[in-house]
Amino acid sequence: QVQLVESGGGLVQPGGSLRLSCTASGRNFAAYAMGWYRQVPGKQRELVATIAGGGITNYGDSVKGRFAVSRNKAMDTVYLQMNSLKPEDTAAYYCWAVGPGHRDYWGQGTQVTISS
Fold first, then answer.
1. What totals of helices (H) and strands (E) does the chain contain, helices first?
2. How many Å apart are CA 93 and CA 108, to the nearest integer?
3. What integer pLDDT is reported at residue 6 of this predicted model?
4. In angstroms, what CA-CA distances link 19 with 70, 78, 83?
5. Cβ(7)–Cβ(21) under 8 Å?
6. How far is 25 from 98, CA to CA, in rounded Å?
7. Which residues are paired to 113 by β-bridges?
8. pLDDT tens digits along 29-42
9. What are the pLDDT digits (tens) for 21-80?
10. What's the CA gap between 39 and 57, in Å, rounded?
């Protein structure tokens, strides 16, 4: 079975940095897109960043210039480097991948909290 497992979440001060990682198992996603979404209770899940199989990246407007998504295809791992963190970045961050037939896969989520 496909499984996406995130790590790296935690508590960080405003202006700080954090690096999330997500490793997929059960299927090779090298040819497909992977990325990150986030969600605050009571609000819709929001795009953070995606990276296609060919390497093209896409970012949500609120994180452009601060976050960077990358991947290691051989390890089926996607990373999210988060810099200049703001309190409004506080959310549960979910790893995402798409497979054959445009099927979506989701990780369990990892909490990121930015506070002073």
1. 0, 11
2. 9
3. 97
4. 11, 11, 9
5. yes
6. 13
7. 11
8. 999 999 999 999 99
9. 999 999 999 999 999 999 999 999 999 999 999 999 999 999 999 999 999 988 899 999
10. 20
Opening angle at CA 28, ends 80 and 50, nearest 5: 30
List Cα–Cα distances, 97 to 14, 72, 104, in angstroms.
Answer: 29, 14, 6
Phi, psi of 46 (to 5 degrees): -120, 140
Q: Please give the structure tokens belonging to residue 33.
A: 């897109």
- CA proximity to 108, closest of 39, 33, 18: 39
Q: Which amino acid belongs to residue 56?
A: I
pLDDT at site 73: 87
In angstroms, the Cα distances linking 49 to 34, 75, 104, 116 are: 9, 19, 15, 25
